[in-house]
Amino acid sequence: xxxxxxxxxxxxxxxxxxxxxxxxxxxxxxxxxxxxxxxxxxxxxxxxxxxxxxxxxxxxxxxxxxxxxxxxxxxxxxxxxxxxxxxxxxxxxxxxxxxxxxxxxxxxxxxxxxxxxxxxxxxxxxxxxxxxxxxxxxxxxxxxxxxxxxxxxxxxxxxxxxxxxxxxxxxxxxxxxxxxxxxxxxxxxxxxxxxxxxxxxxxxxxxxxxxxxxxxxxxxxxxxxxxxxxxxxxxxxxxxxxxxxxxxxxxxxxxxxxxxxxxxxxxxxxxxxxxxxxxxxxxxxxxxxxxxxxxxxxxxxxxxxxxxxxxxxxxxxxxxxxxxxxxxxxxxxxxxxxxxxxxxxxxxxxxxxxxxxxxxxxxxxxxxxxxxxxxxxxxxxxxxxxxxxxxxxxxxxxxx
Length: 400
Hints:
Ubiquitin-like (UB roll), four-stranded mixed sheet, membrane, RlpA-like_sf, transmembrane helix, transmembrane, signal
């Protein structure tokens, strides 16, 4: 019986201890729940706008920097945070965070890297102090966003000279081949045109690109053909005299030319074919061969020359002297080197062969109004020779 009582007491003691533990645990749980509720209720509500995406965060953080750090957001020196990291957290505030990214900018193949929070090309270039002109070539439009490539390629423009035929102008271009440059400038090359620069050559600043405009045209021209001159000896005419037997007449020929022009100027003219339309008529001329001969007159008027030798007053003249025709009284055409004297035919008949002192053998083939009596005029080739001869007394000898 005593054992039974003892067991009951033990059971009751154990039950009381269990009830005590459960009560303590319940109290702790209640306090924890209350504390959690109080902790949650006392948090500040903050909106974080990260790269355009908003998220509401409840926090006990003291500053903006603490909040971002607690959210695992690493801030670099290039990022933009508003308000600043040292700003105290206030319930209901909004924090804006723009994360910077690395953008590669290539200018004529030379690369540089920049960190930026800007997205538009023009803003990124402005931030990097890179100026572009309307002539420069940019891989993206200035108002476009860089996108995922994170790269901007720029080709800087430069000036060079373009000569197109006779037109010369200054133009802008970026680095490219001559062929592409001409295409960009709207220059079309015709069949015979040529470019003085190699088409595969890469253009450079201050280059001179020259296009020569070559044109080949066919032209038919009607031209005259000179007539030939045929001479025939005529013994009935005095030597030196000529007589036209048949008048010459020019012919006509149609010639086809291939004409090459460079920049509008004719540089080559080649006959491709010709057709005679009218044949020329040959001019026939009779040339006199008759030589005048005469014997010395034995009349009283020439008594002074009955002897073979005598003295005369001699002057000189030329074929082009004043009033001279260049043809002697006997029909001889005077030319340099001929030995001819003008005489008074009543003293020395025309055709007489003579020797003149200081002049040599000659023929009396001319006369003149001023040549009277024992006077002669010797023919010389120039005015200087005539002036040198002057007026002098010379001995003359009749040879026939």
